Amino acid sequence: MFRFRGSVFSFKLSKLTSKKITDNTTDPQSRTGLVTVFTGDGKGKTTAAIGTIVRAAGYGIKVGVIFFLKGKMFSQGEVSVLKNLPTVTVFNFGIEQWLKKGQFDLSATQQARQALAKASEIIKSGDYELVVLDEINGAVDFGLISVSDVLSVLANRPKALDLILTGRNADAGIIEIADVVTEMNSIKHAFERGITARLGIDY
Q1: Alpha carbons 125 and 121: distance in angstroms, whole number
Q2: Of the residues 30, 92, 166, 184, which has the maximum number of CB atoms within 10 A of its CB?
Q3: pLDDT (tens digit, 9 = 90+) per residue, 91-136?
Q4: What gap in Å lies between CA 28 and CA 12, rounded to an integer?
Q5: Distance between CA atoms of 11 and 3, rounded to whole angstroms?
Q6: Confidence of residue 74 (pLDDT cuts 50, 70, 90)
Q7: Rounded to the nearest 5°, which phi and psi values hold at 172?
Q8: Is the separation of the CB atoms in 135 and 46 below 8 Å?
Q9: CA-wise closest residue to 116 among 96, 137, 89, 100
C-alpha cells in the first residue's frame, strides 16, 4: 500500500508505477511527457518548479506557467524574472490577499476557474513543451475547482507535454495519474521561532 500524508490509499504502489516509460530522448517532439507533482507542507514546492522552468528555458524549451492562487500578490521576484525569459509565458490569477481554507470568496473561485480554463487552453494548444500549474493542488483542496475537472484537463494533454503541479494536499486522484510525486515535509522551520518571511529569499 502507498502511504501519503499519514494516510493509506486504497491503491497499491505497483499501480502508481505501472506505466513503463523507457525513452530518454532529448527531442521534445518525440519523447513522452511526464506529470510531476510537488506537494507537502514543507517549503520548496514552487521553488522546485521554478528551478525546472529555468533549466528548461536554458535549453530553449517553451514553457507556460499559470499561478492559480498567488500570482497577483507576487508581481516581483520570480514572476518578474520568468516574464523576461524569452521562451517562458506567465499567466497570473488569484485575488489580492491570502485565502484561508474553508473561506468562501466568489472572486477567488472565479479566478481559479479562469486559471483552469487557461490551463486547458494552453495544454491543448501544442505551443508549449512544459506547463507548470502552480498551486493548482491548493485550488482543489480549497474547493475552488473540482479534481474531476482538473483530471479531465490533464487527460487531454499532448503526449510529449510535460506537466508540473504544485501545492499542498495533492488529491489522491492527481497522485494516482502522476509519474513523479515529491512530498516536501517540514521537519524544522524558522517561522516556528518567530522569523517571518524574508523578501527575496522566501517570497
Answers
A1: 6
A2: 166
A3: 999 887 777 777 778 888 999 999 999 999 999 999 999 999 999 9
A4: 31
A5: 10
A6: low
A7: -60, -35
A8: yes
A9: 137
Pairing of strands 7-8, 3-4: antiparallel
Q: Are 99 and 69 in contact (CB under 8 A)?
A: yes
Please, which pLDDT band fits residue 1 given cuts at 50, 70 and 90? very low
154-173 mean pLDDT: 97
pLDDT at position 55, please? 97
Please tell me the distance from the alpha carbon of residue 10 to that of residue 163, in angstroms, as a whole number.
25
Strand 180-183 with 35-39, pairing: parallel
Q: What are phi and psi of 133, to 5 degrees?
A: -110, 90
Q: pLDDT by residue (tens digit) across 9-44? A: 444 444 444 445 455 555 655 679 999 999 999 999
Strand partners, 92: 67
Q: Give the cell for residue 179.
A: 509519474
Q: Which of 44, 75, 52 is nearest to 132 (CA)?
A: 52
pLDDT at 52 over 80: yes
Is the pLDDT at 168 greater than 80? The verdict is yes
User: Is 173:141 a contact under the CB 8 Å cutoff?
Assistant: no
Q: How many residues does the chain have?
A: 203
For every residue of 48-102, DSSP letters joined together read HHHHHHHHHHHTT--EEEEESSSTTT--STHHHHHHTSTTEEEEE---SS---TT
CATH code for the domain defined by 30-184: 3.40.50.300
